[in-house]
Amino acid sequence: MTERPQEPIARLRTLRSVALRTPDASAAAEFYQHVWGLSRIEGDDGVAWLRGSGPEHHILEVREAERNALGKIAFAVATPREVDEAAFRLAARGIPLVTEPGLLDQAGGGYGLRFADPEGRLVELSTQVEAVTPRDVNGIEALPRKLAHVVLNTTDIDAACAFYTDVLGMRVSDWSEHQMVFLRCNSDHHVIAFNQAPWTSLNHVAYEMPSVDHFMRGIGRLRHHGVTPKWGPGRHGPGNNTFSYFTDPAGLVCEYTSEVEQVDEDAWLCRVWRRVPELSDLWGTAGPPSKDVRSHMAGIPDTGRWWEK
Ligand SMILES: [Fe+2]
Fold first, then answer.
1. Buried-most residue among 97, 154, 223, 301 (CB within 10 A)?
2. H or E stretch at 202
3. Burial of 139 (0-12, 13-18, 19+ CB in 10 A)
4. 239 alpha carbon – ligand 1 mean position (Å)
């Protein structure tokens, strides 16, 4: 009898939030609050928690650190029992916990655990995080509703893809040649994408606008603040989402997106996209990414495991 493959450690429901670490935390937090359209809910000099207009308690944490790095990626699971079960399954796979299952000591609270992926990124699974009433439900303002996706630079795209599919149960939606892989955990085409790169780092964080009109008005607000797109606006092939990339005061790349393709789990066929201009820029409005934005997306090497230093 062949051995049954191990089950993923949990069933991820959504990408909740991302944490950024940077020497320019206060300038970055100011930008995300006053220009980008998030609302600051808590924080002091060293850390800021910022909320979108959707029901998530916070979608961004910005924390003071020595150098730019990814702080954490947080996913939602359904129940505390699922968090406990994930701890057992991680142990069975020999993956050590960074934080044991328990109440999370952070804004919004919740019950969760944390562990590191193979490249030292901190991954959090949580449930029962304080829910909030969505803001601006009629879409009067051009506010980011939620995180859309995080793109991560990896030195081994196959190993990264294997870990996130096998351990975290994510599904491959598409490949962009053997350069990028797009992973989903719900009907959104992707919440995580890996990009093959010379070193591990954060590539960019994307925020979802409620519609393409909000997306364009958001770009307009940034322009009013003297912040112009580093790449875009345009529409990508994989995911069929609109894109406009900017850099925050810390030099990290942030993106407005909208109209992310919705995947029918039973009918979706993964494809491999060729990396040609007409597929990465469907509208033909964006042109190729500049050297400058590519350099910001590459960032600086991030060895992760910051909590051990
Ligand atoms: Fe993106």
1. 154
2. strand 201-208
3. middle
4. 9
Distance 22 CA to ligand 1 centre (A): 20
Predicted confidence at residue 2, as pLDDT, reads: 64
Distance, CA 241 to ligand 1 centroid (Å)? 8
The pLDDT value given to residue 1: 58
Closest CA to 240 of 214, 259, 219, 268: 259
Output the CA 254–ligand 1 centroid distance in Å: 8
Q: By 3-state DSSP, what share of the chain in percent is helix, strand and coil, each rounded to 5?
A: 20, 35, 45
Query: Which has the higher per-residue pLDDT, 173 or 131?
Result: 173
Q: How far apart are CA 173 and CA 265, in angstroms?
A: 10
Whole-number Å distance, alpha carbon 118 to ligand 1 midpoint, is 22
* Gap from CA of 3 to ligand 1 centroid (Å): 38
Quote the ligand 1 centre to 257 CA distance (angstroms).
7
| Cis preceding linkage at 233, omega within 30 | yes
Find the 149 Cα to ligand 1 centroid distance in Å. 7
Give residue 205 CA to ligand 1 midpoint distance, Å: 7
Q: What is the mean pLDDT of the chain?
A: 96
Q: Is the pLDDT of residue 203 over 80?
A: yes
- Helix ranges (H only) for the chain are 25-34, 80-92, 157-166, 212-224, 277-280, 291-298
What pTM did the predictor assign?
A: 0.97
CB distance 112 to 99 below 8 Å: yes
